[in-house]
Amino acid sequence: MDQITTWISTNPWFSSGIVCIGFFIIVFVRDITQKKHTIQRNFPIVGHLRYFLETIGPELRQYWVANDKEERPFDRTERSWIYATAKGQNNNFGFGTTELQYEPGYPIIKHHAFPFPESKAHIVGKDPSCIPSLKVIGAWHKRKFPYRPYSIINISAMSFGSLGKNAVMALNRGARDAGAYHNTGEGGLSQYHLQGADIMWQIGTGYFGARDENGKFDLAKAKEKVEKNKNIRLIEIKLSQGAKPGKGGILPAAKVNAEIAKIRHVAIGKDCISPNSHSEFKNVSELVEFIEKVADATGLPVGIKSAVGEIEFWEELAKVIEATGKGPDFITIDGGEGGTGAAPLTYADHVSLPFKIGFQRVYTLFQRHNLSENIVWIGSGKLGFPDRAVVAIAMGCDLIHIAREAMLSIGCIQAQKCHTDHCPAGVATQNWWLQRGVDPELKGKRATKYLQGFRKELLSLAHSCGYEHPLQFTGRDIEISMGMNRYQPLEDLLGYKRDPIAFTKFADYTDFPGRT
Known about the structure:
- The chain crosses the membrane at residues 12-29.
- The chain has 516 residues and is α/β, with parallel strands linked by helices.
- Helices cover 37% and strands 11% of the residues.
- The protein is built from 18 helices and 13 strands.
- The protein has helices at 2-10, 12-33, 38-42, 47-55, 57-63, 76-86, 165-178, 219-228, 258-264, 284-298, 312-324, 345-350, 355-368, 386-395, 404-409, 432-435, 440-464, 490-494, and strands at 107-109, 153-155, 181-183, 198-203, 232-238, 250-251, 272-273, 302-307, 330-334, 376-380, 399-402, 478-483, 486-489.
């Protein structure tokens, strides 16, 4: 021991270097083997710098960069709420609001003097966060397998290919344990979507997973896939999405490996191109016929997803449904502010209407044709927060789809590298090293906590306003700022009332028909 001490005292710099190297080796091994922190797992040693800078971020932004409300598309306060909720941490904020409550467009939810007693809230099973759908999807058209979602908050369309396999598994496990369903995105149903959650299978213009050798839709393949996978409860025909409506997507050849090629029924190592339009139908009547064909073959409720541009399509669709009694069981309206993958800047910024405007126009049109109550309405487009969900519900939404907020819950840091395949958090990439940073089990639990935390706060808001169920919200419960000292009820601002809810009691909506 004396010799070691003597050697250290005579070689201080060399011995210090050995200690430092040993320390960094220990940290490196610890970082790549732990599963809790994605950034440290993907970027050992240097990943700690990110958390240090994040710790002093408020001070740096306060004096040098930006405040907590200036970052986009989700500011730091919003991201902090998601992260804390997903981790089961304290998601409350102190010292009052930092919002500009007189800023035009700012919503205020009006509480009641006599709230609904939380002691009387109905608990489904042992889940105090359960919020079942009030409508049964497919009941109107008497589909063979109607579906009542256990949760009105569900995970929106994000394809395997756009997201990595670990991210897809984490989201599916999170949805499974929270009782939500998981939309596959247009990339098709993969083994990573089969972790136990109910599935909304999205079929886009490429018909991935249900196409023949020529890229045409194959009804027999679609029927076979549904029969083999009992977790598929809904089918969504994607006409367009908010990020890039009217434009097909492309998965570069480098990302089309054997696994993705098998799932999508495409060639290995070649660009996987989604056409900008469907080949199975060219007009509204043919679209309705296609919906009925798929529904009859599978027995499942079938709906459509679309961003909103020209209104003539919707007018014609309403007329065809009214005349034939046939058509979609649900309609998902995607806002132009949405988008989880790559899109040209002009499309992302300027093509398709924002959610509130687009939904208002379509919903009121269907009201005029006395069809709105028969259809299940789904809202999508930056709605992953309780206050925004309340506004969407008051406008007429029966269900809410969330995408980017769900990505944040499993580790996304809003690096905005989704289109490069270099997502540092390992969420939106096929890079094997970056993906390994996302542990499906741990991140799945965080997705579950986020969904459950979201629903608990949504229920709490409903109770504060005197309601047992959030779908009882109306446009009279919300006021929108029109500028200094001027507020207007949402109902008056939009110019319509959502369809009345014939709500009885919570327990009457807890029958969940299955597939047999």
